[in-house]
Amino acid sequence: MSTESPTATDTRQAPLPHKKVGVLGLGAMGAPIAHNFVSAGQPLVVKDENPRAQERFLADHPTAAGASTLDDFAECEIVVLVLPNSDIVGNVVLSDHGLLTYLRPGSTLVDMGSSVPARTQALARAASHRNVTVVDAPVSGGVTRAWAADLAVMVGGEKHHYESVLPLLRTTGSRIIHVGTIGSGHAAKALNNMLSATGLVAAAEVLLVGRRFGIDPSILLSVINASSGRNQATETKYEEFILSRTYAAGFSAQLMRKDIGIALDLAQTEGVEVALGGALGKLWRSAVESLEPGADHTEVVRYLEELTGVSLDSAAMGATPHQAAHH
């Protein structure tokens, strides 16, 4: 396994000016990733199914070229996909007149979205028949870190394929980890997100119990973050997005449910029983069905508040049933 941890200077000094690169998908994560490529001096062709998203990006990045059809990527040596799921990746790449129809032999597809590992492996096999390489390179860190070119990037693919795209990935990631063979990056991303979601929910349960007892959630959060129970959610998400009631972390509950599902399917395929993961999957599915479409993943805590009848909202602080019983 190879690990690259370039400094901020390294990140900006490693573009691929001699290669033509394309980016498909300019959403919440695709736009900052493409921005980082352009900022590093990388010639770029971009496309998004939403014309407005494409127009906004081109207006902000006049050196980039807009693609009207997939054949506009024919001259690209590397095409980066930042698409929501494997269904969309398959439709864009493998359908009749899909991207694979136009890519020239020797080019590379880099899937930076969250896809199903087995389908990424199947995509790589299909692409190999046209002498096109597939590398999976999903990211972690969220929208804020994406704009700061501070993403963690987990890469699946043969070592020489990984090394061929590493300079490009360095322009958007502060830590790039070669996980293993094709599909390994997507597997690692799904497993990481299942663990992240578990930490978020576990912290919610602890804070809700503490609140019912009468402990201010902010104070209990301070205790947790000074102690052994802390996790990424308690250290970053609760104060900024949950106790503040903004719920604006930039990653939807629906997408998190998808990633949890990928991880659970992987566990089943590998014959590993995951009791906590199974419980998490059921809870998250119920939460998504209850929340509004497009809800941020941090709103799962709001669902748990409604489920338990306990609020973490500081504005709702008052005498709890426990306190009332002692007066």
Commentary on this structure:
It contains 15 helices and ten strands. It has two domains: 2-180, Rossmann fold, CATH 3.40.50.720; 188-325, N-(1-d-carboxylethyl)-l-norvaline Dehydrogenase, domain 2 (Orthogonal Bundle). It has 327 residues and is α/β, with parallel strands linked by helices. Helix content is 50%, strand content 13%. The strands form two sheets. It has a six-stranded parallel β-sheet, with helices on both faces. The protein has a four-stranded mixed β-sheet with strand order 1-10-9-8. InterPro entries: 6-PGluconate_DH-like_C_sf, 6PGD_dom2, 6PGDH_NADP-bd, HIBADH-like_NADP-bd, HIBADH-related, NAD(P)-bd_dom_sf. The active site is at residue 189. This is 3-hydroxyisobutyrate dehydrogenase. Residues 20-180 form the 6-phosphogluconate dehydrogenase NADP-binding domain. Belongs to the HIBADH-related family.
Mean pLDDT across all residues, rounded? 92
What is the H/E string? EHEHEHEEHHEHEEHEHEHHHHHHH
Measured on Cα atoms, how large is the radius of gyration? 22 Å
Report the helical percentage: 40-55%
Report on the biggest sheet: 6 strands, parallel
CATH C-level category of the largest domain? Alpha Beta
The total of beta strands comes to 10
What share of residues are in beta strands? 5-15%
The side-by-side strand order for the widest beta sheet comes to 4-3-2-5-6-7
Number of helices: 15
User: What is the first-to-last residue Cα distance?
Assistant: 61 Å
Given as residue ranges, the uncertain stretches (5+ residues, pLDDT < 50) are: 1-15, 319-327
**Which structural class best describes the helix and strand composition?**
alpha/beta
Number of domains: 2
CATH architecture of the largest domain: 3-Layer(aba) Sandwich
Family: Belongs to the HIBADH-related family.
Domain 3-hydroxyisobutyrate dehydrogenase-like NAD-binding: 183-304
Pfam families: NAD_binding_11, NAD_binding_2
Domain 6-phosphogluconate dehydrogenase NADP-binding: 20-180
